[in-house]
Amino acid sequence: MQIDDMENLGRTQQVAAASAVAHHVMTAREAGLVGCANCGRVHRAPVPANCLRCGRPLFDRARARSLQYVWSWLFAGLIAYIPANLYPMLRTNTLGSTSESTILEGVVELIHHGSYLVAAIVFVASIAIPIAKFVAISYLAIGIQQRKRGHAHERHKLYEVVEFIGRWSMIDVFVVAILAALVQLDFAATINPGIAAISFSLSVAFTMLSAQSFDPKAIWRLTDTT
Amino acid sequence: MTDQLPPFPDVEPPNRSFWRNLSVVWLVPVLALVVALGIAWQAYSDRGTLIEIRFESAAGVTAGETTVRYRDVVIGTVEDVRFSEDLQTVIVDARIDNAVLPYLDEDARFWVVRPEISARGVSGLSTVVSGVYIEGVWNNEAGTERRTFDGLSSALFVLPGEQGRVLTLTVPDGMQLSGGAPVIYRGIEVGRLQDPVLSEDGRTVTVEVFIQAPHDQRINAATRFWDTSGFSINLGTEGLSLNVESLASLVTGGIEFDDVYDGAGPVDVDATFEVYTSEELALASAFQRPPVGDIPLSIQFNRRVRGLVVGTSVVMDGEIIGEVTGVSVLSFDTPNGASVRRMVADLMVDAKLMGLETGATAEDVYDYLDEQIADGLRARLTSSGLISSETLIEFAFDYTSGRAMLDRTSSDVPIMPWVPTPPSSLNATAEGLLERLSALPFEALMNQTIDTLASVEGLAGDPALRGVPEEAVGLLQDARNLIGGETAQAIPVQALAAVADLRAIAAELRASELSEAFNAILTSTDAVLVSADQVITSANGVVETASTIMEPLNTASAQLPTIMENLMTLSETAAALEVDALIASANSVLAGADAFLTAEGMTEVPGNLASALTELEALMTALSEADVVGSLNSTLTSAEAAANSANAAAQALPALVERTETVLEQVNGLLASYGPRSDFMGDTRSVLQDITAAARAIARLARAIERNPNSLLTGR
To answer: Percent of chain B scored above 90 by pLDDT?
Structure first.
């Protein structure tokens, strides 16, 4: 998605224009330039239908359906998040007795055992962060759709945080995977992953894809085109 | 936003319809939704059906954890444990697998399986770790489905589908038996007991037993059950006997059964059996408890009779003919005003057992009895055994009493006349026993024993006898010293070497055989090889060359006998010497042999032999390839000559013995100058071992060739 040529071009122009126009930044789009999304070649107007270098179709980023991707991945992630919380994450078999616990049950159990720190980590990684991500991505996407202009810096920051933090939700899945692989002591103790482990990792993957589909430049484009 | 950018090109067709604008990526959430809904629906449809089981108590049953099992397979889980509205029962809600739901009908039973530790073992052990579970049983026929069940407080006695038969037994008391105790048939556990229960009237204790198929076919009218609980001690004429069935039945009790006679018919389904207290009683019951007779009699004793109870047997001529069916006290006033109390025993006797015809009526019996009474037959009380004081009513002849008859008129049941028990029977027996005991020659026996002991003591006190162990110890010490001495320990090794030598020499001396000639050829040295090479190169003049071989061959073969002779001398000397002298002389022999060996290059012999063998084999191959049978024959002739010379050499053996002996003498003198513990001994021993090894190698070779001479020609 990030096209360096375009970035650099935009940035040099930005630097050139920075002193003259403090609030308006000349964009490549305004300059009549279109970069190929595939190979990065910049085409001047009149722009051909396909890239002159690699032959891929050229398209206007502003009209791209990036938001559709964002929303669809987000919805998929939301749907997957429901069974992730309803079904058991771990199926623990200790000395013949089987116990299953969902994510939230696990957190409650950890609190009962007094492991507040671990409980906090699990809660943040598995519940707080995913939900916060849903909210944040929705907020960003709605902001673009409603052509909101203010707080561009903040929103960009938010986007960066979301993208960075997304993978950390996998910590729970990671723990489950390790436990299930290590604790296979037959009768004494066996841990198997539940359905929730799969749906949770799917949910995290979907939201990460959603965050990636989001074009942060869309935030700035609105700011630019006032 | 586009209005500011007129020059911007259309790189994409604008304004497509909403649906066309829709990205394919939307399929992802749709798909996720479908899958999620699918999983949800499946989970919902698979979750089973809720049933209700009512228990009096639900100890250990936990919602969400306790499972419901059928044949030890989990078919459901308890979802909720709650009380009924009146708090009288516990209702357990369990979600049951839909697959088994159709079978949950009238006959379905549920109970809670808990760990049970009893003398019979541990059951339900798995529940200790996994917690209790609810076991359900039902037959394999689907019936009218039910959703509400009453749980049992304990496991079902007979599981549906279990083949067998339930019998009711009456036992004297429930002390010895407990639920789950085994029912044993000829030592095999064939069934089990339910918990004993008191009958409603409180008089008897009944216990249900389940006999597994096919053992339930063993049950018939002749079957008797007896209690095997604990152990029994029997003191009888055959001595003291202790019976212990099994440890488990010792603690929990058990019941055994068997047929007491053959050919008995089947019994009713609801037949009740009596449990006897011991096997003897059960077996005796076949005789003691005949079918109760149908002919009533009574006896009126004018005093209280001890031991007379209902069931007391009536015996005539040693056979049981009936039993007492009732004991009562009759009191009436005589015409002269005195109050009289009589003890009345009501009897039932069997005509057939008395020896009458099968169809005999009561009148026939009475008439018969009348005849007998006229002859002196009377009823009397007696006891059946020496130790057991079981009371019997015996019909016996008593000729001392006066005239009597069956009183058929004074009551509705004829009254049998009776006589008091003669005091003699038991007393006489006891007296006789004591008399015989006192007649035993105890005193003489004691005296004899004392005498015997005294003579034994005298023998033991003899000082000569006491010295024996010490002498034996000394003897053992001497023997140990002899065996432990270095010289004695060296004997076996030397003897072995001598034997090996003898064998080698024997093989060698059998020189007239052709194989032996080959043997001699084998021992030829490199000279043979040189000659053999010549044979190979000149195929035509093989015969001549072979004859030229003879000379070196002879000399070569002459060498070996020399060695052999020496060895033989060695072994002979070893054999001829006394044990004590053997070692010293063997040592000297070895010293001489050592010198001899080093001088003659004896140690190289085995190697030479091996190389000679290889060469000879090559020679033979060459010979056979060259198709020189004739030359081979002549070679064999030459070999025979060589063997002859070997023979001659062997005959020169005595001379060699002398020579060796002189050498030995010399060495003996030399040895005297050496101390007995010098290095010399070690050297000689190692030399001896070398010789032994060499001799063995030769012997082995000789044996191998003797066994299979062909191997020389065929090359193994």
So the answer is: 1
**Which chain B residues are Cβ-neighbours of A225 within 8 angstroms?**
1, 4
| Distance (Å) of CA B552 to CA B524, B528, B652 | 8, 7, 19
Contact A212, A204 (CB under 8 A): no
| C-alpha distance from B28 to closest chain A C-alpha (Å) | 6
Confidence of residue B639 (pLDDT cuts 50, 70, 90): low
Provide CB contacts within 8 A for B134, sequence distance 6+: B53, B61, B66, B67, B68, B69, B78, B92, B94, B110, B111, B112, B113, B151
Residues near B148 by beta carbon (within 8 Å), at least 6 away in sequence: B51, B52, B53, B54
What is the four-CA torsion angle of B98, B104, B109, B110, rounded to 10 degrees?
20
Q: Which residue of B has its CA nearest to A207?
A: B29
- C-beta separation of A133 from A166 below 8 A: yes
Stretch B659-673: mean pLDDT: 62
What is the pLDDT at residue B5?
47
Q: Give the global pTM.
A: 0.42
Residue B384: other Cβ atoms inside 10 A: 14
Taking an 8 Å cut-off on Cβ atoms, the answer to whether B12 and A63 are in contact is yes
Cβ pair A45:B7 closer than 8 A: yes
ipTM: 0.71
Say if residues B226 and B282 touch (Cβ distance below 8 Å): yes
CA distance A221 to chain B (A): 10
Q: What are B35-82's pLDDT values in tens digits?
A: 889 888 988 888 888 899 998 888 888 888 888 888 888 888 898 899
Q: Which of A26, A97, A148 to mutate to test the interface with B (most CBs of B within 10 A)?
A: A97
CA quadruple B433, B438, B441, B442: dihedral sign: positive
Flag whether residue A225 sits within 8 Å of chain B, measured between CB atoms: yes
- In this complex, do A69 and B22 lie within 8 Å of one another by their Cβ atoms? no
Mean residue pLDDT of chain B comes to 71
> pLDDT at position B73, please?
87
DSSP B462: -
Distance, in angstroms, between B41 CA and closest chain A CA? Answer: 12
Element (H, E) at B192: strand B188-193
Taking CB atoms and an 8 Å cutoff, what residues of chain A touch B23? 65, 68-69, 72
Which portions of chain A are predicted below pLDDT 50?
A: 1-22, 226
The answer to whether the Cβ–Cβ distance between B25 and A69 falls below 8 Å is yes
